[in-house]
Fold each of these.
Amino acid sequence: MKILEACFLVIVITAATVNSSPIADHDLSNEKNVHRNHHRTRRATENEYRRMSPSDRPKCKSGSTMPRPPNEVNTTSRLQKLRALFPAYDGIKAYYIPTEDAHQSEYVAAHDERRVYISGFSGSAGTAVVTEDKAALWTDGRYFLQAEAELDCNWILMKQGETGVPSSTEWLGSLLSAGDKVGANPTLMPIDSWQVIENRMKDKSISLIGNSTDLVDEIWPDSERPAFPNGDIIILNTTFSGKSWKDKVTELRKKMADKNTRALFVTALDETAWLFNLRGSDIAYNPFFISYAIVEENNVRFYLSNKTGRLTPKIAVHLSTGTTGDCSGKTGICVQVKPYEDALSDMKNLNDTSSTKKVWISPASSYAVYSSIPASQVLKERSPIQLLKAVKNQVERDGYERCQIRDSAALIEFLAMLEKDVKSGSKQWNEISAASKLEEYRRMQQYNMGLSFNTISAVGSNGAVIHYSPAPSTNKNLTTTEMYLLDSGGQYLDGTTDVTRTLHFGTPTEEMKQAYTRVLMGAINLAMMIWPEGTYGREIDSAARAPLWSYGWNYRHGTGHGIGAFLSVHEGPGRICLGSVCPVPSTRSALYEHMFFSDEPGYYEPDQFGVRLETIVMVVKANTPNNFGNKTYLTFKPVTLVPFETHLIKYDLLDDKQTKWLNDYHAECMEKVGKVLQAAGKTEAYKWMEARVQQISTSGQAFLTANMLLAFCLVVISRVL
């Protein structure tokens, strides 16, 4: 059985390498990929699309007696008000409401949660489309259960990647007529998404029209809408960043010269924060501030919301600018600080038909930015900041590993206390109180700046909701009979953390242990992978899924995301993913040395439990006897150091290599985190960890060498073919 599973792993990895075309991770970008996938599924007819209805959802069926979830949002009045604006808005017949803000952020400020307001769905990924008499929401597999609960029966739920689910343009094409118009805000839609939708609509003689007046903004009462963000901004000194902003600008200008460009327009909020060594608080859990930047050959401009209030004397000195943001009389590299509202007009002023050099714009920028100057003057290519930011320098790497040790110690101390209370019954804990207490433990750690995302504290069936967020209406108590999935992280001056562990404080069922063990096997498989430099995450993702696939299980999310250094918990451009959750290649990159990623396979049994195990790993050079093709070979080094749950592991499923990896990992946990706990006098936490890091003996079975296994698999494949 183990040989067959290993062979299966070889086959799926080979398949992933050969057929590695990525597919977008949200509907707007997915427009250009959905058609190529239909040869693998039954193509639904336009009549079937037209007949799609909210009544297709179980709770919305006629006569359904299913209780309405407590977190469902009534959107009837909001939809009526939105539709009432259609006639005055060029007579549109439908309107797009994406998740993103003007900077195409994954997580947006509460002020910019337009899609949440109109639909009631609070997940971080999704696109809403409203017609004169229908409303539909597209989202990926992470959010199917959450969307089903939160969307009321005004909405059709479009489950991306599922058989028979159309793209938004296919759905609109089945409903609208030639000559009709579809509206959207070009400030909120990425370039590629806009162009793909526009071209698909043209095929049906339907127009996509843009207006900077957002219709959701028009119907969202000021009394209900959160204020525009205006948080404090702090300076991140080189003790943590490892490189001055002036050095970063110099490095950028070299990249620009290599591409024959005269200006780089920076739109992503994590990029402006990284570039200027500044951090803010405009978006919950993300240390960003609303801003743009333009880097030119001789000038640097920084567009900051509430410039007057936020350009403090200290920040002015940091940016080598005047107290009003003026560079007059300054020598060397100076940052001109301007009002946020001037950015797009200044972008238009970069129009220079006499220059042979272009303006560099990221494909992730908004269509409004892209269309502000002629396309002939634009280099549309991934921002050079993405790779510079993702490949951490020595100072960032050292700080990141130290912050992971502190964060791991905080989590271990919390879990030791929690387990003791739940097992003894001395104190009742629920999802919300547990998440709140864990936050207290993190905030006591050196350099902590808060959480990196809203803690996923999920008991039993709530754990099956992949990105569940505890709320009073869904809050469950921790018990000794149900699984507990805890996905949490912190922001620190020297790093950003993200760790998931799944626990059971009683006697787990065999199915729970089977699921936990296979998820663990997948995590170990990925952690042990060795690959040649230039390999993409999509080419190794299947290593984590193989133990689940061989059992007929899978999960509807990517296996790994990049992570920032006191920046975003989800950082590009690298990603480890497959299929419909894998983004398009224009904004993705290979996995390079000194990038950090999550390693987080999972399994989710609807209405029962969820298992996810997430460990942050760093890409490092692998110790290989050869380097075929004169290439560097890479592997992963774990930096999260929290032990796994021994009573949830079926050790007979692990092979000797997996067992050795687990033993080595647990020894490192004890060596690095154990010292911290002992030094701090955290005896109970130390004992909790000590009980989980006992070395496990291997089976003593003889193992096939890699070459023997490959030869065996080739024989099997040849016989099948």
Amino acid sequence: MPNNVAASMRKGSTVQKVVVPGAKSTKAASKKKDEDEDPGEGWDEWAQGKALIKPPDQLELSEAELKEEITRILTANNPHAPQNIVRYSFKERSYKPTSAVDQMAVHFVLEGSLLHEDSDEARRLRAKEGLPEETATVDTGVEPDEDEPETSDTPVEDGGEVEEAGEEDRPDSVASKTDRKEPKVTNQFNFSERASQTLNNPLRERSCQTEPPPRCTFTATATQWDIYDAYVEELQKQETNKEKQKAVASKKDNDKGKKKTLLMETQTDDITKVGKASKIFERMVNQNSFDDIAQDFKYFEDASDEFRDQEGTLLPLWKFQYDKAKRLSVTALCWNKKYQDLFAVGMGSYDFSKQGRGMLVYYSLKNSAYPEFIYPTPSGVLCLDIHEQHSYLVAVGFYDGCVAVYNNKEDGSEPMYKSTAKTGKHTDPVWQVRWQSDDMDNNHNFCSVSSDGRVVSWTLVKNELVFTDIIRLSLNAAVSEGAEQQPGIACGTSFDFHKQIDYLFLVGTEEGKIHKCSKTYSSHFLETYNAHSMAVDAVKWNHFHPKVFISCSSDWTVKIWEHTINPPMCKL
């Protein structure tokens, strides 16, 4: 047999085989023959084929470099595994990166049907098929030992016998298929199929039986007298029930009154909660819609003013109106010193023959569509003033001679303080009111002037207004020839207190005169200025110069004065 055939047979002996009875003897004989064969010249050729071939571009290393040990650490991490896998976390409601990445890479999978001969499954298979132990032996691919007994002593000389043995040795040969019975190979795992059936919960019926209501049978004979007595008893019961119901009704009325007040309070509380948010929302809408006006208010400049000689133009910005105050005239206006976007407007009528209701209204530049506060008044408002420190207090003078104080912090439209005939109200219209500094007891107070000639100081004490007359204005009439004219009462129209001297103040009259007065001398004037020919509408001390004041009148003149000099310094 040639050497290359023997080598190929040695190489092919590593293939797994299933040993069948009758094939062992031929296999052993062929193996012995292979060992006895001399390789000869063919062996040298096969050995030369395993010689190392050095490529031309291989590096040439020295002995030291060849002996150098290079340590490399092999890890089980897969370099191709993705590192940016994210999964949705239902707990945190967001995508989170996954740190655990599967590093295993499967290159080849083959599900086999071979069983180990010593396994329990192989024994069960042999017992099931009724095969002897030798016929069901499973070869794991390892060559049999050399010490196995030879079944045939006849040497095989030619290649034909070797080929025949090889054909018999192969499990897929026709002879092996006909001679041996293929065993049924089951799964290599110990598989068992199990099933269970759950029990349905038994139905339960619950029922209950109520006891029947008690019954009784009643029979009697009634006469006319029995019927009459029954009616009399029923009438007495009805009368007693009516008396009880009257007593209960009185209690219910009281309870209903209390409940109504509670309901009103709760409703107002709910409205105030929504009202604040709606007010802010309304301001935002108005500021967005009137943004152009706000920009003009800050940065408007008319280019045509360059061509006018000392004349300018007025640009109307906001227009404030209230539907329920359309027929009323604006009689007074005062800005809030603390909140500079807020101002109060007094409304009444200058047509003194047709006097009626009035109104006190607060407007804000942040919302020109609707007033912030509305106070209807029974008489027309002629003047008002807002407290500088306590901006929620406003003093108001009316046409009927009353003065009142309103508090913006309190709910309702009624004033907190109001003068009456018993508390010293004016008998004529009040033309001006002005807050003063607190007194020695830290009580708020303000002053007022009226056409009845009185300048009155009003003090807020607990729940009432306490008045004090500062001065009564008298008119020194000129004496005509042949008759004497009694001096009358001067009608005050305006006043103003000195900015530095608390007791010094000026009073303008309807006759056009200005009186310089003092709180310490209430019987006479310090000085009188023949200022105007008509009523003095306003008089004001200078904020920067303590001796200078200004006055304006209905005679269309404005004059600047120094209180130590009688004639005016300037006339406009």
Amino acid sequence: MPSLARKRGAATIMRDKTPFPTQQMAILALCRICEPIAFTSIFPYAYYMVQSFHVTEDKAQVAMYVGMVTSAFAFAECASSMLWGRLSDKIGRKSCFLGGLFGTGLSMCLFGFAKSLPMALFARAMGGLLNGNVAVLQTTVAELVTDEKHRPRAFSIMPSIWCLGTIFGSGLGGLLTEPVKNYPSIFSPGSIFDSYPYLLPNLVCTFVVAFALVVGFLFLEETHEDIKHERDRGLEAGRWLLRKIRKNGGEEPLSDKDANFEETRSMLNEDNLAAFHSPGSSPTLCSSRTSLAEPPLYSIGAAEKLQVQQPSWRNAFSRQVCLTIIGYGFLAFHTVSFEQLMPILMSLPESDVPPQLPLKFEGGFALSTKTIGMILSVQGIYQMFAQLIVFPWINLRLGTLRTFWLGIFTYPLLYVITPYLILLPHSFRLPGVFAILAWKVLGTLNGAAASSASVCRGFGPTLSGMIQSTGQTIGYSGLAWWMCASVALVACVPSAMMKEERKSAMARALEDDTDDEAALSTLVDSDEDDDDDEDMESVITLTGEEEEQTEAEAVKAMDLERNCGL
């Protein structure tokens, strides 16, 4: 009995002490950052690029075609995301990530060489079709971070990576556009960059993607349960390269999995839990896993029970889940419309027509691509600061749902006010723009909706671009903005109906499991002090049917939340 209790306690402690996979998360983040760079790098110059295609002589119609170019990526990404998700189950997560990076780099290179609207649309759509990283990302993080206590930290990294990508993407797109015009001492007239003025930012972004592709091939580990133990020639090449760089030919550097195992084995040795290492009695030997660094979380009996009790679609798509999906759909629609309309407003030429307040006025700021890129980069800095500093502080005091409401209910007013910035004196325009961007960032404290609603990302720019062109034609520059305000106002309805659950079943089960582990650790330690029989009875009572029941509830809750996420 004492041996059994020690073995179960060792498995529990082992599960609890798993280190955070910093190395693999860093590599995954490097692969992830390429998508926001590709998506946002065109915003500073999209208006001027489409204008150079001479698709229409009516400048008011340019905004509509800009919306089409922006939406092509998101529409294609949405159409292919499910296929990439299924493909990753067959060929592995790593292969899909590398394929997505290759497609992103190829599309950006082609977009830089685009001299017509069809070519630009094709390049952007191809980038979306070949980029399956969004479909695979959440699954990869969940498989990589096996310790539930580390998952909130792991999933919070990706929104910050999106913000970082918008900083670099917008900055590169604005600073490197038309290099012959902006940097005549470096780029001479008649060069390739004179013929293709929007090639340089795309080439630089392609180089970033290529670097991430090489790093991912050499150092990213497969996380699929059935494929991760197969031979990976990329990892072998990466380890060989590291040995050559270090020039010591010594012991191979530890991966995250090896580090987990070494730390756990050292901890177990210190606790004198020798029975756990017995090959004849270790409970982990019945698992299909080949590494002790990833022990089975649940017993075979509990798994057999759970196979019969899978959550139904009705339970998965509950009222609250549907409200959340609808709310985030509206949110993605009007926020990505803002991302497109703001650069267009800054690119439009100033109007000589006097405004007829309160509604009829037209024109823009006529800013250069360098200035627009700088402004959008500052917005990314705002957003990262809010994500890392402001959001945790506000969320701690208001709660998740109230923080969500704080942003949602202020969006309509934000969109109503924004087009009136062109009526400000020139000296107040840039401060007004920065104030609007800061306001908008505070509204997105709820997370990166742009990365989770590709359908709405596709409809948003196209529809808002069409309405912007219509508004410019009839003299109402704020028409598209007021459409966004109406959509944001409608989005307040499902958002107001949301309720914040006290605690999910998984959270309760995990808390119970944590209490059990603490009690188990205490009892195993006290077993060394002459109270073997009495303490072991307590341990057996604690870790028997109650633990199996807790584990079963945790797995059911995790399956339910995964289905809800789909």
